[in-house]
Amino acid sequence: xxxxxxxxxxxxxxxxxxxxxxxxxxxxxxxxxxxxxxxxxxxxxxxxxxxxxxxxxxxxxxxxxxxxxxxxxxxxxxxxxxxxxxxxxxxxxxxxxxxxxxxxxxxxxxxxxxxxxxxxxxxxxxxxxxxxxxxxxxxxxxxxxxxxxxxxxxxxxxxxxxxxxxxxxxxxxxxxxxxxxxxxxxxxxxxxxxxxxxxxxxxxxxxxxxxxxxxxxxxxxxxxxxxxxx
Length: 230
Fold this sequence. Notes:
The chain is of the alpha/beta class. It has helices at 15-29, 36-39, 52-60, 66-81, 90-99, 112-121, 145-154, 168-177, 209-229; strands spanning 3-6, 103-107, 130-132, 161-165, 180-183, 199-200.
């Protein structure tokens, strides 16, 4: 395997919980309950599957001050997210990739400023060769565009890369692009179905990176032998 391509939200940093909590509080202030099941459809995408502001407007039947709501939820979000550290196992995984000359990239449906800002804050910028975000492709996940662009920039065949994802939408994107995909569910996505992934780990520190990378390489080699024998 020549490359590791990481999702960002929920995999490198648990931004998803604080975003959900910020919106949940906004809903409670209007005597409403934010539907968690519908919220989960947003994770791993550009969020177009469910617009929480539009939903709230339809429920309360009144004109809402969108800017005021944005300021309130962003204040809550910033206060919580700036205290967050990277998810367990992320740095060790990146250090292993560097030591083994394995290419690294981020493929995220979030905006570039969001991803790059947090990566810099966490001190992880030197570990990534490429950061590909929503602005760089025509379609966000679950379309394959982000992973295809990331592997293109890394100069590797998608079949020689491993995707690390925390959402079913992300898994679908990675598999459609031809990558081997390991699901690493985060706090918001642990109850979801990851049957489309090649394997599932509870955390990136569940096993040494060299172990699961070797397992992925062996599985890919076996697939190629089967294909060549047909």
